[in-house]
Amino acid sequence: MRYARLLVFVLVVLVIMAIPLALVLARSYFLSPTAQPVKAQPIQFPHQVHVQAIGLDCTYCHRNATTSAQATLPPIELCMQCHKIIPAQGRPELEKLVSAFEQNQPILWNKVHQLPDHSHFVHSVHLSFGFQCSTCHGNVGAMGKPGVQQVRDLRMGDCITCHQQNGARVDCSVCHY
Amino acid sequence: MRRREFLKVAATSATGAVLFAGCGRIGDGVPETEFKIAQPVHTPNDWVYGRDAWFATAAPPDQGGYGLIVRVFEGRAKKVDGNPDFPGIAGKSDARAQALVQELYHPDRIAGPQRAASRGSGQFQQISWDSALQEVAQVLRENGGDRAVLITGRPSSSQAAIINAFRQATGIRHAILEPDEFVVLRTAMQRLFGTSMLPYPDLGNAPFLLNFSADFLHGWIAPVALARAYGEFRQGRPGKRGLYYHVGPRLSATAANADRWFPITPGTEGLVALAIANVLLTEGSIPADTFRPYLTALGIDETRLTSEFTPERAAETSGLNAEQIREIAHALVEHQPAVVIAGTSAAAATNGFFNLVACFGLNLLLSNLNQPGGLLLNPDPPLAELRVPQDAVLSERQWAELFEQVRAGSISTVLVYRANPVYSLPPAVGATDALRAAQHVVSFSPFFDETTQLADFVLPDLAWLEQWGLQVPDPGPGYATVAIQQPVVQPFVDGRAFGDVLIQLAQQLGHALPWGSQEEATKALAVQLRRLSGGSVPGANDKEFLVHLQAQGGWWSEQLRGSATTPATRITSPRGPEFIGDTSQYPSVLLPYPSHTLGYGELAHLPWLQGLPEPISTNVWQTWLEVAPRTADELGLTTEDVVRLTTPQGTVELPVYVNPAAQPGVIAIPFGQGHTAYGRYAEGRGVNPLTVVAPQTDPDTGTLAWSATRCRIEKTGRRMRLARFEGNVPAFQLEEFPIVRVMAPSA
I need a surface site. Which of B420, B499, B511, B729 has the fewest CB within 10 A? Predict the structure, then answer.
């Protein structure tokens, strides 16, 4: 009986100490890139319509993916090449695009695939090797509303595993330079 | 406390801590745009190909004004390098040029025009450009003309043209603040060779260099061009290695490169030079009639040179022995054409002007002026507008007079552009009091430095890589050279180029300057170069010429070379150095020296430069005292002991660095630190040596003699960590590589 109260005390202390631990662990789960909620974008861009319905290739818009480090977003003038003949009236999302073009304002998108800090990723090298965009980005062409979701972890462990599986270099300076 | 209460407190605080931590989100503390990606309306060129662009531009005037190229990708300047086509530097640059990008991205840049809440409070409110310009124009309308003064650092050549036009339109006075040693050097060149441009030692063709104290590899007039030429001197000619003797009080990194270092008492360079001339004359190795202009300049005759300035006499004061002086003189004769230069602490003694005349004058004896391997004199800028007015450069004495006028009220408005008189002039000059007393102070600095803190209005200038300009490198490579400075990125803040602001202010005052903007001025002046013969830039019309000029980064003409006159009258007389402080109380000489990265403190706000080790001691981010081992032994000091340094002017406490190569009796201290403002990387770090240097001047030029103060040090018993690269980690012996034992020279 003398020790029972002490035992309860120790247990309660342990439980209290476990609360922050559990919360930190839970938080880290939610921080996993693939578990991130879909980000709200300034314009609800439907990849589905452009890829599946119209049949555009990813590199039609993301033109530099095959030649440079960045995939890059197309300038609004590229969007407008088609959209100048597609009526925007009554389509609020499209109206945002047209008004941005007319007011000469860039559109600020929320980055979905955020590269971990201090690392470099070169799109062109990976595409030249033969990978599809979907290897890392998932089937973006099928992603309609609410928007693009990250489907692959893309943190260091993921990169290293993939490099090992494909016989690529894994020394630090491959990505950290 | 009861157990129940403890549990309550523990549970509440633990949960609370977690909840508070949980309220934060990833990305806290990073700019809002970090996780954004911009979709531009029209694609910039470099995005189309995903390739970087290299733009040619120019280094600031106080770094040599040579041509640079900057790598720009996606609208961001990433890397600065030397322009490979530019004469004299051939693609080389230095740390100070590399750090220009840090000025661009500096977190403490002033974001837009500001008005002080109350003068000197350090509190500023953002205002619009329109109201800032209106208010400053109003100030100049009421208190302009000869009641106003514009203080600048050395302006670029195109800025000089704009300032000159502004000065003529408004009647304002222009004063240039340059480090005193350069004022002495320019005056010496003017009076000795009749040219206001600095000379260039042609090291690439010289077999022998004799240098009196000039730190030419790190920070003297043109460190990049001279360091590159030094490489040619040593290794550029197969089978020939240039011989380099250094005469000076401190083993700087430049001195450490020499074949022989002759340590001397500070300020005795001129006496050693005269003793060398004495040897050359008495031994008859140089025709006696060659000596005439040299002796005329110094106001002495042959008899006086042979009788009073013997090596034995010079040995008594300089700390060398007569044999060493003869050895240097013989080397000068044996290795022709030899070149002689002098500067840094030689110019900052009470006889600095005499030192430079006596040392540079040796070139007259060697008949090497404008000869291959000799001292090349540079021509004046190819356009008269590009000339930086020499009479606007003030000496220490003239600064004191100017600030006295400000204090007395005859000058009521002070405009300051990229100069920091409160920090870079000794307190005795009275800049702080004068600025407090002035009715209006307007600063154009892009940072809150000590002077800007005292301003009523701040109209921030753009960073160097964001503006237009023309730049005449001083010294040039021996012929006419102009570098073009063009913006490589869009401005990051709501600043305006200083030239633009002057032009807009003039407009508000009802005077139209010849140009509408700094860009227009630059281009208008640049196309005038096309009319000059022999230029390196092709162009059938002005537009084509400008395109080629911008692509090439500059214009130069090897036909336009400098010429020299020889002095016809006495310009100075032989004089030994004088020191403030009595020898019994102050046994050592305090020898400040400009830092190879921070200069005289004007670059202390850039962390890359703060973190670059001083080449001899490898110390960073600090001020320290270099002490000889013998002095350290006498006082029982080791490296990192804090000592109290006392001069007749004041007392500071600093850590000691025991340098095996330091001379006993000389205590060296670097310039650069001791800022009380100027951004997070400069503030509250180390000591400004000017606060303990006696306000002693050179009577010939009126400049501050910062190496003319005596001092003493006392142990305080405290210690302090010195951040440095070497000597912090013990060396471990590997069996196959025995550690070489280093013997200090018997100290």
Answer: B729
